[in-house]
Amino acid sequence: MSTHDLTVPVAAPSAPWRQRLGTMVPILVLAPSLAASFVYVFVFTLWTLYLSLSSSSLMPTYGFVGLDNYASLWANRRWNIAYTNLFLFSGFYIVGSMAIGLLLAILIDQRVRGEAVWRTIFLYPLAVSFIVTGTVWSWLYNPVDGIQAFVRGLGWTDFSFALTANRNTAIYAVIITGIWQSSGFAMALFLAGLRSVDPDLIKAAQIDGATVSRTYRKVILPTIAPIFLAVAVIQIQFAIKTFDLVAALTRGGPGVSTTFPAIYVYDLMFQRGQIGEGAAAAMMMLAALAVVLVPYSLWIVWRRRAEGRNG
Amino acid sequence: MAEIAANARNDPEAAAATRRYFWNRFLVYAVLTLFAVIYLAPLLVVVFNSLREQSDIARNGLISLPRSFRLDAWAQAWGTYCVSGTCEGMKRNFFNSLWMTIPATLISTLLGAMNGYVLSKWRFKGSEILFNLMLLGVFMPGQISLMPWAFLLGKLGLTNSTYGLVLIHVVQGVSFTTLFCRNFYVSIPDDLIKAARIDGAGFWRIFRKIILPLSPPILIVTVIWQFTGIWNEYLFGVVFTSGQQQPITAALVALTAGGTTARAYDVMSAAVLIGALPPLLIYLFGGKYFVRGLTQGAIK
């Protein structure tokens, strides 16, 4: 009778080969996925890093040019527009969808009838692709056929709503559509958080005579503060990777006014044959993600440890 | 009794409280309704337009109630509409997406279940570190992998094929599926596994007899998550396939990009709905699991 612990013991050198093979099974099962993930995460990243330091243009070549690609990337006006857009989009998108998501979560939390129906309505945009959302909204923004035409048809004849037709406003069309798509997501996370607050805490506040809004501000929202951070981090991630939405909604236009880093990477690599510079731009996207995710995961680890010590 | 009621009626404070309560309720439902209209409007507009006559849309704009009810646009979008020379509608791309999504979902879910089983119940020295390394795959931006994939798919002879996309989605998805399953299996008591091992059950027997029967909740979440994610993916589809090999997301962009001439909004609306329908149906019927996947994938 074996007395295996749950950790797989290292096979003794004298163990018969069948038994040794037996202890290897878990590792063998894991191996293919592990190897694939390793290649995907490390080899691919180093590969792209190397391309970003090479003179690759139409085809990958491996002549080393140092940081030239990065220098020309940062000197490029279009890249400038791309990351300015990223900051602008991230700011409005995160604040907007969190505000709407929180509002909807709090409203649904007021013991409304048909809760499941409301939730289903606010979350369905998340099930469809950014391609579908972007396409449909590009029609709605179209001044000749969309919302502008509709409102003018109602009688308000000088109503103007042509965000995507104008270089300076097209980015706001992307922001509005992004918020529309994902405030339901923020709502779902906030609602889960609101439901997890200890009811005794709320009761205590009510007994002390706190109003509903005061209870939310002073008791409930502070206890779900980590959820705010989680939602923000996830949405920054979305923002940095934004590609499909813009590709379907504005295709980066008018002109280059709604270029995003991800769009620019695609353009450099596959439209203009500047693979080296495209790889440099992709590395900058990775760097942006790391700037957000590394401190966040360190904070999560730290908090778990702290909870472990206190609890 | 009557006295109390009379008191309540005469007590201005109680009356004010009741009034305030009703106003609050009214406000809650009013705001929710307003947002529900904003959320549903685009969907309704597309559904209506897929049923309207093109001439009606051209005259009255996109936002209008249907005056007719016909499915011509759906038939055209599915089978006969012409995009850049070929007149086969969306059906080929729809099946491309299906033949890409189903295998990629099943393979990545199966791998994720086995990996999750090993990483939660057969831990070995260093397995936690390996798990964390696999997790990094969740955060990788697709752009980093474009050039390496292009090279690898070329070497494997999988450029411009659905198999190539299946490979990409399996490799990319396995970190998600492993994460989901591992976090679920951790909550299965170790004593259950220990007892089985004392009874002489091995690795696979425990997997089949204990783990798998307990798995449906997490497998449904994982399958739904993978299916919608892969079906909706666009970047790899547009980069690595063209023309008749494209999945439906890439084909939709090609279809709606067409020129500046009078746009066939009726057919395009039907095409968009065909592309959106599978994940929408999954969401409507498995919404609970969809949301669970969302919150789990997000919080962890």
UniProtKB/TrEMBL annotation, chain A:
* GO BP, sorted A to Z: transmembrane transport
> Per the annotation, which location comes first and is thus the protein's main one?
membrane
Query: Where do the ABC transmembrane type-1 domain residues begin and end?
Result: 83-298
The answer to whether UniProt assigns keyword Transmembrane helix to this entry is yes
Q: Which family does it belong to?
A: Belongs to the binding-protein-dependent transport system permease family.
Q: Mind telling me which SUPFAM superfamilies this protein's record contains?
A: MetI-like
Topology versus the membrane, per the UniProt entry?
A: Multi-pass membrane protein
Give the location in the cell. Cell membrane
**Source lineage:** Bacteria, Pseudomonadati, Pseudomonadota, Alphaproteobacteria, Hyphomicrobiales
Q: Which residues cross the membrane?
A: 27-50, 86-108, 120-140, 170-194, 219-240, 279-302
Indicate what this protein is called per its UniProt record: ABC transporter permease
- Reading the lineage from the top rank, the first entry is Bacteria
A GO CC annotation given for this chain: plasma membrane
Which species expresses this protein natively?
A: Mesorhizobium prunaredense
Give the keywords, sorted: Cell membrane, Membrane, Transmembrane, Transmembrane helix, Transport
* One Pfam family linked to the record: BPD_transp_1
| Signal sequence extent | none
TrEMBL record, chain B:
* Cellular component per GO, a single term: plasma membrane
| Top-level taxonomy | Bacteria, Pseudomonadati, Pseudomonadota, Alphaproteobacteria, Hyphomicrobiales
How this chain sits in the membrane, per its record, is:
Multi-pass membrane protein
The UniProt entry, under CDD domains, shows: TM_PBP2
InterPro entries linked to this entry: MetI-like, MetI-like_sf
Give yes or no: UniProt keyword Glycoprotein. no
Q: Where found in the cell?
A: Cell membrane
Record-annotated ABC transmembrane type-1 domain positions? 94-286
* Alphabetized PROSITE patterns for the sequence: ABC_TM1
Task: Specify one Pfam family.
Answer: BPD_transp_1
Q: Provide the species name.
A: Mesorhizobium prunaredense
Per UniProt, the keywords (alphabetical) are:
Membrane, Transmembrane, Transmembrane helix, Transport
Q: Which PANTHER family match?
A: ABC TRANSPORTER PERMEASE PROTEIN, GLUCOSE IMPORT SYSTEM PERMEASE PROTEIN GLCU
Similarity comment text for this entry = Belongs to the binding-protein-dependent transport system permease family.
Membrane-spanning residues: 26-48, 98-118, 130-151, 163-185, 206-228, 267-286
Provide the protein name: Sugar ABC transporter permease
In the record, biological process GO terms are: transmembrane transport
